[in-house]
Amino acid sequence: MKERVRTLISEEEIDRRIREVAAQISEDYRGKPIHMICILKGGAMFMCELSKRIQNDNISLDFMSVSSYGSGMTSSGIVKIVKDLDDPLEGKNVLVVEDIVDTGHTLHHLLGILNTRKPASIEVCTLLNKPSRREMDVPTKYACFAVPDKFVVGYGLDYDQRYRNLPYIGVVEFEEDEEGSEG
Ligand code: IMP
Ligand code: MG
What we know:
Structural class: alpha/beta
Helix content: 10-25%
CATH architecture: 3-Layer(aba) Sandwich
Strand order of the largest sheet: 4-3-2-5-6-7
Strand content: 25-35%
Radius of gyration: 17 Å
Largest sheet: 6 strands, mixed
Low-confidence stretches: none
Number of helices: 3
Shape: globular
Number of strands: 9
Mean pLDDT: 92
Order of helices and strands: EHEHEEEHEEEE
Number of domains: 1
Bound molecules: inosinic acid, magnesium ion
CATH class: Alpha Beta
């Protein structure tokens, strides 16, 4: 089986859309500090590209890592904090930065945990959204792109830890090796 990645959303499209969403966030939080929380590892590239385009001189960044039990391409929805935040959330305007909201289980669980820390407000900004797969209702105020029910990689998203570095979003496809073909 040969594996290849077909481009779904180009680097230019992502760049354009992140600027739009960043402008919206700048507007919505005008005069208010923003505490951005990146969900590692998938949200890392998006966090960098998004945060540098938000116009607000009172932005702080923090990072956490969660693992949802389950293997391969599905999520079980049971979330374990692997690396917790460094700073408390009390009284802050929290913006959770995610790579993708799929079934919604991970985020539902995570928001439950974060809300116990008494932020002043909490919103979600996700690069990708797969609405057709949703099982838990989660508030995603900011979503850059809706994607079809396909397993996507790139721009932080991985398949078995690979492809996170791709500057675009693609779909992993598998094809039979043809006899006599090269590569
Ligand atoms: P959920 O709990 O089903 O919403 O899944 C959330 C997590 O599953 C995401 O943060 C990703 O890490 C992972 N995930 C879901 N769909 C994809 C995909 O298409 N490609 C890569 N990772 C995915
Ligand atoms: Mg994730």
